[in-house]
Design brief:
single chain, 4-stranded mixed sheet, globular
Length: 567
């Protein structure tokens, strides 16, 4: 009996020591190892140290473990345009939507925006219109496609079809809204915020809607300063003698970014991330080596299914030939003549659907013919615009008010808000912010080392001497804005009359993957094309990505050969 008790006591002690070591190793100890101070303790100033638990995958997403791969490696290159020169790249771990954003998901964004920023009110009249998909992309001068123009976006028959007719700019607006929507739900689920949709007394319109950055800046600026909507925050131990909080009063403290509770920002994937996720080369891995090459997102050099039950069916939705979008009646080999419902075809090894075919997808990069791996081979991305929060003369962060919205007129005449009411105002960094820096020198890095003055033959000229000189990338730019007597932007539509030598500019974005309207050639994930960021089509959609924090692997278990290998 004594030996059993000793053994049990030893087991308990070993478990405590193991958990303590694990906590110390993972940095989740409640005490500072270097000072001995207690974190989250009012006796030591209540200094914050949050707890982090890895493995919480955002809803609708899959984990993409990062690694190295060959970007731009294609099987066919009939264009010979130097667009897909192979280069070795490393991609960090991230999360990616398992399928494209659908009509029903985007319509939720539309409905919310219409409620919060009613278009019938003068100060909001351009906001809802700016995110509406262009349903007229389905029209053809010589085609009977009016049914799709009238029904594809909102008819329930197409609810689970990928949304199209969205520009790159609109896709980014959705990503920002999704960040706020997810974080609002997190705070409501944890009881920090009351359910704002049930509280009639809460003002939830215009600048008083929920914005993640505004909440982290000052929670009591939200909802017209109504603090009664906050129920309970992060528990904080009370000092001896402190009064207990009232029954209906807010207890604890507000959530901060240091708590690790809120979701990371949703965004479009970079080109390198998208291609890496689509190729899923790890299914061809043996130890740390790649066995063979992949042409498509699935592990085969053919587009047809080889399984017994679905033998001969296409593994993706694409145009199979001139006037052939779905095959012969009675034996439809790809199942659709337009975009099909998401998840209609087998996923790749990461669990991602439709990375080849169905609709092409926007990625975040500014387009350039050559990806410069010599400049950066780690998480490559072209298009960084570094910003900072605008601070007013009183030292407070500026939050955009209902009457402070600034608008921009795009080349195609569409008016879009630069910032939404209730959001934090950001401005580009200045020269003072980059003084004596080595890693970046300017705010807008879209054309760094390719298109900027330093990369041209005019690199020695002063700015005054550059006037009238030809630019490397001289795509049409937007017309000058005209304002009416009230300061509203007027539509000024003009065709560009200048002689142009390229369609490339800092407003031209990459899109990846083949679509229902493309031939098989474009199904290769390494192929790349481009469009102006303000243009929408009936064959380009998008999916969201978000960053993974902490370790690059969800678990530390390693296998010589992946368990999932498509036969």
């Amino acid at each position: 009996m004594k030996s059993t008790l000793k053994l049990f006591s030893f087991f308990i002690l070993a478990s405590i020591l193991f958990i303590s070591c694990q906590s110390s190793r993972n940095g989740s100890s409640s005490k500072s190892n270097l000072t001995g101070w207690n974190f989250n303790d009012p006796s030591y100033g209540s200094y914050i140290k949050g707890k982090f638990k890895d493995g919480n995958t955002p809803p609708g997403m899959v984990h993409i473990e990062g690694g190295t791969y060959t970007m731009g490696l294609v099987q066919d290159d009939v264009m010979f345009d130097w667009n897909t020169t192979p280069k070795q790249m490393h991609v960090r771990s991230f999360y990616l939507d398992e399928a494209e954003v659908t009509n029903s998901e985007y319509d939720l964004f539309l409905q919310y925006t219409k409620d919060v920023f009613p278009p019938e009110e003068e100060q909001f009249k351009h906001i809802y219109k700016s995110i509406l998909p262009d349903t007229l992309v389905w029209r053809k001068g010589l085609g009977n496609t009016n049914l799709l123009s009238e029904n594809y976006l909102r008819h329930p028959a197409y609810a689970d079809y990928p949304v199209v007719g969205v520009s790159w700019i609109q896709a980014n607006k959705y990503c920002k809204w999704r960040t706020n929507a997810v974080n609002l739900k997190i705070l409501m689920d944890k009881g920090v915020i009351k359910n704002v949709f049930k509280e009639d007394s809460i003002k939830f319109k215009g600048k008083d809607n929920f914005d993640t950055d505004a909440y982290l800046t000052d929670p009591y600026e939200l909802f017209d300063g109504d603090s009664t909507l906050y129920k309970r925050g992060i528990p904080v131990p009370r000092k001896k003698g402190d009064p207990k909080p009232t029954k209906d009063g807010f207890s604890g403290r507000q959530v901060t970014s240091s708590d690790g509770i809120l979701s990371q920002k949703f965004r479009l994937p970079t080109e390198s991330e998208w291609e890496y996720a689509a190729k899923a080369i790890f299914e061809n891995r043996e130890y740390n080596n790649i066995r063979g090459r992949k042409k498509y997102s699935w592990s085969s050099k053919y587009t047809r299914n080889k399984s017994r039950t679905n033998k001969g069916d296409q593994l993706a939705n694409f145009k199979q030939g001139k006037g052939n979008y779905s095959g012969i009646s009675g034996w439809s080999s790809d199942g659709s003549d337009i975009p099909n419902s998401v998840k209609s075809y087998p996923p790749n090894a990461f669990g991602l659907y439709d990375m080849s075919g169905n609709v092409a997808e926007w990625v975040s990069d500014v387009y350039r013919p050559i990806v410069d791996s010599e400049a950066n081979d780690f998480n490559y991305f072209r298009g960084n615009i570094f910003t900072k929060k605008l601070i007013d003369p009183d030292g407070k962060v500026v939050i955009v008010g209902d009457g402070d919205v600034e608008y921009d007129t795009l080349v195609n005449g569409r008016i879009i808000p630069k910032d939404l009411p209730g959001s934090v105002k950001y401005i580009p960094i200045t020269k003072d912010d980059t003084f004596m820096r080595r890693n970046y020198l300017i705010a807008d890095n879209s054309d760094v080392e390719d298109g900027d003055q330093e990369s041209t033959k005019f690199y020695e000229l002063d700015k005054e001497e550059l006037v009238g000189k030809p630019r490397m990338y001289n795509s049409p730019t937007k017309p000058e804005e005209e304002l009416d007597s009230l300061g509203n932007v007027l539509n000024k539509l003009e065709y560009d009359s200048k002689r142009r030598t390229t369609l490339i500019s800092n407003k031209t974005r990459v899109y990846k993957g083949g679509s229902w309207a493309d031939r098989e050639y474009w199904l290769d994930p390494a192929q790349r094309r481009y469009f102006p960021e303000y243009i929408s089509t009936n064959f380009i959609g998008f999916r969201c990505a978000t960053d993974k924090v902490g370790p690059m692997m969800l678990n530390e278990k390693k296998t010589a050969i992946p368990k999932y290998i498509r036969k």
